[in-house]
Amino acid sequence: MSKKLFRRAAAMIAAILIPFLSASAAQKDTLRILAIGNSFSDDAVEWYLHDIAAADGVVMIIGNMYIPGCSLERHLDNSRTGSTDYSYRKIGADGVRRVTPGYCLEEALADEKWDYVTMQQSSPISGVFSTWEASLPQLYDYLRARVDARFAIHQTWAYEQTSTHKGFMNYDNDQMKMYNAIVDAVDKAADLIGVDIIIPVGTAVQNARTSFIGDHLTRDGYHLSPTIGRFIASCTWYCRLTGRKLRRNSYRPEGIEPEMVDVAHRAAEAAVRRPGKVKSMN
Fold it and tell me: With contact defined as beta carbons under 8 Å apart, do 238 and 201 qualify?
């Protein structure tokens, strides 16, 4: 073969292989996270998490298997029946959020090679350990048999002190009682199934409540506010699952002042360091 033909052949091979190798490298460097959740996972992962990661050079694919108010018991029942009651919310590597109705757990678990799969309880009973004990082990076994991933538990947050949610009565309408019950139940649940990753959003939110922001992090007394509340939750997920610091991250959502961003970063990092201990942000 002449040198000219050799160079041409080499160029053709490179044209074929380089995009393939680049795609393979991108796949390897992408962090894939699937939440088996409800509206509280919506608050935590669907709005800011991808952008926080992108500002830090991390590519993420985020999935959320969503049913409003879904409990572990219902997730378990759905796993047994193959229920297609889920809305599958997926944010691709391109940052575009796509919503597909009529999904079942089996389909979502097979959709990507997930790095992390997370579980959480419905908020009114998130601090009642007996409800975790009744359904979590069986759900965990179902998930673990179908996906090779690391598993984590999402520690959700206590309601605003003025919340009128009827589930608040489970904690005598006392925010700190609810927070402490959630921390205790989540710790016990993690021990129950041998999971060592807790995403401590509840503690991060409680930390932020000690700052000048105060107890103003929800939009209805229990769901997080569209701006700073959700941002704090996403910061906590990012910090816990990547191990990266937040305070050099340049991403600031529209409508959130720099002082609030600083509180969110500090509240999330403090929660990751001490998932069950409230730290003053003053």
Answer: no
